[in-house]
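My convention is simple: the sequence line spells out the residues, with the fold written below as integer tokens. I include a record here:
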Amino acid sequence: MDIRVYDFDFKLLCIMSDAISSSWTIRYNGIGTYEGHFRLSDKVAQIILKEPYIVITEGEKQAVCTAKVAESELLVCGRTVNWLLSKRVIPPFKSRTVFGDTFKGAKEIAEYVLQRTFTAPPKIDEGGCYLENTVDDNRKVGNFTLPSVEGDTTLDRYFWRNSANTADEVIADLCELAGLGHRLYFNVVDKTWDFEFLEGEEKPIILSEHNRNLYDASYTEDIEKLASGGWYEIYSSAASGTDSDGSGADEDETVWRYLKKESDLTGMKYWEAKFSESGLSQAQSAMEKRIKECTLQGTVSGLKYLKDYNLGDTVSAYMRFGNFE
């Protein structure tokens, strides 16, 4: 498939049909990677070396070039386009302060984050505070399109961050709470940067060596990060004795709180963690990742991406290793 190179203004710079190699890793709710190898004698190599801001596409796969290494050939490293979400920062915020005393859905909160960081970022004073009812034209991306929040499922709690985070970190946490994925799409037709939520479907596919659609299978199990409870840091108002963790109290001193999840593990099997994340909301997101990690890997045959399955879809897989199934 052809490799196309664009600048950030959606101008097509070059089309390449015979790269040495082109390798992609695409993630449902995270930043993927790209690695391409090109001959230095090819026109595409000269363009990539000259242009500072480029997007490389191969079909529906897209990446921003983040690094170039010229030796006997040109190595190009990139990150999927949603990596650009990591280049904007959202200061601490609380959904209760933004939306009032009602729980909101992950999509609606994500829309607020994208507005503050891309479509209508306010000007910021020297003290780091937003100047409300203003728009910073230097940071505004006029051709950034926001997603539909249709079908948004209300969260069962408030959502907040007690420290500044990159937009991609907050978006990924929100999507994880709602079982969603996300991507930033480089729309060359409309010349827009389109943020999209991804919602995988359940497919009636069974992967197995018996069905001849799975080869070189491996199974990995890792309990190193497993935890049933843990400690996290918050700020407390010395004057009132109330927590600022969602209540809006002053940040006068640091205190520690304990968080645990439903678990039938007891005794020596009950493990704890110390979270580097501050505040209940971030600690809850971190706790949800403290699970036993079970990974199936293998080479899929006879199925085509974007035809038989899409990013985030759920399939079944059967593996057997000795007497273990």
